[in-house]
Structures are given as structure tokens and as C-alpha cells.
Amino acid sequence: MFKDKTVLITGSTSGIGLAIAHLFAAQNANIILNGIESLIEINPILEVLSRKTQGQVIYESVNVSKPDEIEEMMARVCDKFGVVDVLINNACVQHVSPIESFSIEKWDLIISLGLSSAFHTIRLALPGMRSKGWGRIINIASVHGLVGSAEKSAYVAAKHGMVGLTKVVALETAQESITCNAICPGWVLTPLVQKQIDQRATAKGISAKEAEHDLLLEKQPSLSFAKPEDLAALALFLCKDDAAQMTGGAITMDGGWISR
Question: What's this model's pTM, rounded to 2 decimal places?
């Protein structure tokens, strides 16, 4: 059902976003990757994805923390493909610090990248979805969109905001064939999380394996990471007709985190 459909995934050069791109490519969709790396760095990824799909694969080297760059990207994509059928907002960064010493620059970056970018892509994608009479919007939020953690003020604020934005978009499109859902992962072994594991290992003078176990023990009762491919499978399901009545949800894949 995804042949001739166009899927735009922000922050998709690694981790969850890239796993989603691979799965939709296997469904023969047109794939638009996004990141800030150079085209030369991303070419090997594009080649692999192109071999998987009967559609087209392009790369938008765009900093989605900047609204003007988002507008230019969306205009190019719509000129090329007509509409964005599936929009997946995945871009975000992390910074850990007590609130009184939290960098203002980091706060602004995380909010703009992890929340405002989703507002801009959604507002620009919706007219095309409405004209076509079909659309799927998936916001990759986090379990931190539902609960808090110390020293992650900007990330928690951005992810809570993304869950709220998801509900509003769902209400505004509820009588159309457009859905909007948030996926809320717990710990997923992505480059972002690996960086936190490495920092913990260094700070505590322990091995990476011990740091990984400690990280899971604090929050995730399963003591196992979700895989990016697991999240991709959930995203794909939410885009199918079987999920047409799923909208406005904050769907967790967190190994029992919020059940504590």
C-alpha cells in the first residue's frame, strides 16, 4: 500500500529514524532522509535504501531547528513528489544538566529541534494530506513525554510538548483520513543513548556493560533495550488501514518503565 507514497523522516541518518527508512523502503515508498551530514557521508546509506525500494530515495541536508530551512525543504519535497503522505518527526538531541546550570543555548536547541520542528513540518504537510484525502503523522516522542527524569529539563519539556501537539493535531484531523500519533520509547540502543552509557561509564569508572546494566536497572524493568527495528515496525503499523482509528495516542514501547 505504500508504493507511490512519500515518507519524510526527520533526523533519519541513524538510529530509529534510519530503521524506519529501511522498513518503508522495503514497502516501495519514496524515502526522504534528513540530517545535517554532508551528502558524501550519506551516499552509502542512500545506495542501500535505493536497492530496497522501487521508489525514489533523496536526502535533505537541513537543520530542522531552523524554520526557514524547514520551509525550503518542504517546498522542494512538494515540488518533487506533490505531497508528503507519511510524516515522521524524529529529530532531537539530548543534554543532561541540573536546571540551574542548564545551558540556555542547549535549551533553545532541544526545544526547537525536538518540538518546534514538528510544529513546522506538520503545518506544512497537512494541506497536501488534506488535498489527497489521506495522511499519517507520527511523532517520535519518548517515555519522557509521559514522565520526568532529573537533569533532563529541556528534553522532558520537548517530549511532553510533542505528546500534547499530537493530541491537538489528532483532534483537528479526526474526521479526515489523517491520523497523528506519538510513539514513546523507553531505552533504545541508539547513538544518543550509547553516548549516555559511555559518559556514565567514564564518570563512574566502570565498564560500558556495567553502565548499560545500571542505566536499564534504574528505569526499564525488562532490563533490555528496545531495538530501532521494533519502533520501525510500530510506525509502519500505525500507517496501515488497520490503524485508521488509532489517533491522538501516546503509544509506549518501554519495557514496563511507566508501569512502575
Answer: 0.95
